[in-house]
């Protein structure tokens, strides 16, 4: 089945995206144009879109955290006015729709867009307006897509309660939930308990970046102390899954094989079992995880073993610009390098839609009315 799944076929499949950063998906051409407009100096001097796109990709691939973080300095710099935020948000929706995405959650940190005098409220309203305009244009072009936003607070800063209050205030205007992001080590999510308590008091949804750069304590705290609905990345849950005398982390390729051939040979620790038993959604981002060193390769990415063990795995892009990726590219890589088939893609897409911060009836409508029929049609052309 996998051999028949070409990139073109995959491109035509409906996709659901839960973990995508707005400032990590700006078009290179837009960065170039807006930087020139505001006088922001870019690190590439040849003035070409291709050169700038390559700089972003190479910097993210460099293995240097300093260079990786520098890439966001340039995208955030061109997202400081209402007009620019509107444009970036609208283009985000159009790019996702062109990739076959039918539902997405785009996350950004309002506190990072105040350098030119905007208020937090004005930032949120500008992004909301851009997302709605993008949805309308995509629908008119025959590519309907629903895009909601997640408001992110930076875990090293002290505005999380303020951002949580903002997420609650705007949840009827397209803000689906809240997120905590930034360096995990040294900045535990429990520093932001007031924000999480406010969200829970108002029955609001939230996810937490956990289990990527830091290990099991990050995951445990996000779930058991903070009460997260989902885990951003969560890849390090495999540190609590035993393979022989070691863990999945020691030999992920062997773990993937074992998960396919004999899942019982993988032994789940208490936390890993809890994550699976309670169906905690894992927002996994293969290309990004390889860039940051959280996974050794696409073929050896733990997403395959976790999928075979029936975790609530979802597939995501993280930062489309920095990783030079899309949902089509993420899916194609798993098909070509990790042996995924059409059923796997349908399953992971349905997982994501089930896990979306969207009302149940709207999730069900997309699953039953869009995702299932499209995959059923695709399956008619395959003979396993």
Automatic annotation (TrEMBL):
- State if Nucleotide-binding is listed as a keyword: no
Q: Name one Pfam family in it.
A: A_deaminase
Question: Annotated site (Important for catalytic activity), which positions?
Answer: 233
Q: What class of enzyme is it?
A: hydrolase
Q: Which GO terms describe its molecular function?
A: 2'-deoxyadenosine deaminase activity; adenosine deaminase activity; zinc ion binding
Keyword Cell inner membrane appears in the UniProt entry:
no
Q: Which InterPro entries match?
A: A_deaminase, A_deaminase_dom, Ado/ade_deaminase, Metal_Hydrolase
Residues at which Zn(2+) binds: 19, 21, 209, 318
Q: Where is the active site?
A: 212 (proton donor)
Name what cofactor the protein needs.
Zn(2+)
- Any GO BP: hypoxanthine salvage
Q: How is the cofactor bound?
A: Binds 1 zinc ion per subunit.
Give GO cellular component annotations, separated by semicolons. Answer: cytosol
Q: Which PANTHER family match?
A: ADENOSINE DEAMINASE
Function field? Catalyzes the hydrolytic deamination of adenosine and 2-deoxyadenosine.
| Protein name in the entry | Adenosine deaminase
Which species expresses this protein natively?
A: Janibacter melonis
User: Quick one: which gene encodes this?
Assistant: add
